[in-house]
């Protein structure tokens, strides 16, 4: 089996993963944790192995040496462990707690969704990826972070450039150039927000970090805001697009949701399981250890493939199928352990409580375009690249 796995992994190309990684992941799950030369790391693809890894951060460290995230964003809390990680996480938490999301941010999200839809409602057709999902995620994130002076278009450009940098395993110099320019743009915006929020605190993440009992330094705030701009924009954007597409292409499930709007919560959870927006993140071993039947040396670079774990056939029945009625719902799209995603409640509210219900309520007869197909892309970060639709204006 090990030899077969080795022969197979040697053939894997990053372009194949970008186009459609799921057939590759299905093959990898049949073998132990496997070294994939094209990714320059071991890919961990099984649900059980990833759950074990997350429970043992002292062995599988987030503080990866030569991390692409650190290169692009600086030293964020996602690349720290122990007390350093906890300190920075604790500083940001007040702005993102469930009660704050429900009472303060959800009404903001609703107003932004309605304003966006007002802008294109009469057209009767749109690309919901570019006209709604992207701008909605950007506007909501700007509000939550405290970057009220930043245009949604700039935030989307910065996010995509930095995400491309985080996935730049091909070492493309043009990708690095764009990522560095985005990083500088974020620094300027964060510095302006810090200057404003020092004397006038608000409910935002930057304000929480700035006025915490143990305040973060401007450098730490800059790095962590870049982290939030990455995952905090692409994850709700892609969950909105994927959830909308999935419902429109599964009319029987759409009917269930229309009959019981509480099921939008299930749509959100199944969307991020079916197509995990953050498909892979890195870890590094602190000592020699075994994982998935493979002995890993100290310092081994791992790719933790959430997208594969969420389609593990030993956990999920018919894992390649979108099904809001599935019995097993314990996906890993938000990671786990100490690094469980801080923005989970914000994403659930923005997508499951606001974006999806509002689109289906306000765009009567919403349906997929019958002339333009949807396109998919990505593996480190994956989602739809467009979502052409029509409705009855």
- What form results from the Cα inertia axes? globular
| CATH third-tier fold name | Cytochrome p450
Distance between the termini: 57 Å
Share in β-strands: 5-15%
Secondary structure: helix percent: 40-55%
CATH architect. name: Orthogonal Bundle
Strand-pairing-aware structural class: alpha+beta
Sheet with the most strands, sense and barrel status = 5 strands, mixed
Q: Could you explain how this protein is built, in words?
A:
Helix 9 packs across helix 12 and helix 12 packs across helix 14. The protein has 393 residues and is of the alpha+beta class. The mean pLDDT is 92. The chain has one domain: Cytochrome p450. The strands form 4 sheets. A 5-stranded mixed sheet has the order 1-2-8-5-3. It has helices at residues 2-9, 14-19, 22-28, 47-55, 68-73, 82-92, 98-120, 128-145, 152-166, 173-197, 205-210, 218-248, 251-259, 264-274, 306-309, 344-362; strands spanning 34-36, 41-44, 60-61, 125-127, 281-285, 289-291, 294-296, 301-304, 367-368, 376-377, 383-384, 388-390. It starts with a helix and ends with a strand.
Describe how the helices and strands are arranged.
Elements (H helix, E strand, L loop, with lengths): L1 H8 L4 H6 L2 H7 L5 E3 L4 E4 L2 H9 L4 E2 L6 H6 L8 H11 L5 H23 L4 E3 H18 L6 H15 L6 H25 L7 H6 L7 H31 L2 H9 L4 H11 L6 E5 L3 E3 L2 E3 L4 E4 L1 H4 L34 H19 L4 E2 L7 E2 L5 E2 L3 E3 L3
Parallel strand pairs: 2-8
Antiparallel strand pairs: 1-2, 3-5, 4-12, 5-8, 6-7, 9-12, 10-11
Label this structure with key terms:
393 residues; alpha+beta; Cytochrome p450; 5-stranded mixed sheet; 12 strands
């Amino acid at each position: 089996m090990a030899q077969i796995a080795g022969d197979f992994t040697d053939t894997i190309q990053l372009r194949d993963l970008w186009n459609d990684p799921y057939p590759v992941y299905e093959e990898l799950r049949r073998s132990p944790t496997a070294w994939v030369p094209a990714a320059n790391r071991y890919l961990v693809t099984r649900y059980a192995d990833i759950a074990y890894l997350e429970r043992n951060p002292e062995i599988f460290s987030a503080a990866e040496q030569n991390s692409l995230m650190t290169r692009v964003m600086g030293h964020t809390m996602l690349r720290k462990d122990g007390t350093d990680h906890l300190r920075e996480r604790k500083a940001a938490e007040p702005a993102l707690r469930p009660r704050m999301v429900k009472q303060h941010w959800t009404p903001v999200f609703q107003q932004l969704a309605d304003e966006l839809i007002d802008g294109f409602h009469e057209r009767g057709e749109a690309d919901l990826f570019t006209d709604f999902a992207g701008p909605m995620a950007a506007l909501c994130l700007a509000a939550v972070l405290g970057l009220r002076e930043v245009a949604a278009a700039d935030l989307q450009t910065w996010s995509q450039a930095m995400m491309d940098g985080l996935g730049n395993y091909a070492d493309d110099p043009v990708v690095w150039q764009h990522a560095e320019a985005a990083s500088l743009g974020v620094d300027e915006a964060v510095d302006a927000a810090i200057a404003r929020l020092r004397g006038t605190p608000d409910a935002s993440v930057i304000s929480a970090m700035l006025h915490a009992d143990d305040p973060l330094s401007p450098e730490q705030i800059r790095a962590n805001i870049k982290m939030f701009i990455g995952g905090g924009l692409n994850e709700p954007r892609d969950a909105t697009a994927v959830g909308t597409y999935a419902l429109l292409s599964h009319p029987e499930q759409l009917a269930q949701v229309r009959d019981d709007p509480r099921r939008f919560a299930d749509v959100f959870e199944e969307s991020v399981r079916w197509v995990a927006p953050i498909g892979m993140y890195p870890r590094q071993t602190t000592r020699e250890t075994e994982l998935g039947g493979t002995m890993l040396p100290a310092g081994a670079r791992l790719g933790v493939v959430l997208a594969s774990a969420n389609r593990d056939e030993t956990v999920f029945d018919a894992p390649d199928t979108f099904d809001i009625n599935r019995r097993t719902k314990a996906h890993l799209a938000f990671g786990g352990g100490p690094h469980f995603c801080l923005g989970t409640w914000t994403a659930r509210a923005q997508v499951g409580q606001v974006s999806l219900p509002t689109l289906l309520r306000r765009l009567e007869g919403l349906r997929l375009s019958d002339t333009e197909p949807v396109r998919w892309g990505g593996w480190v970060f994956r989602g739809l690249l467009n979502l052409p639709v029509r409705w009855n204006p």
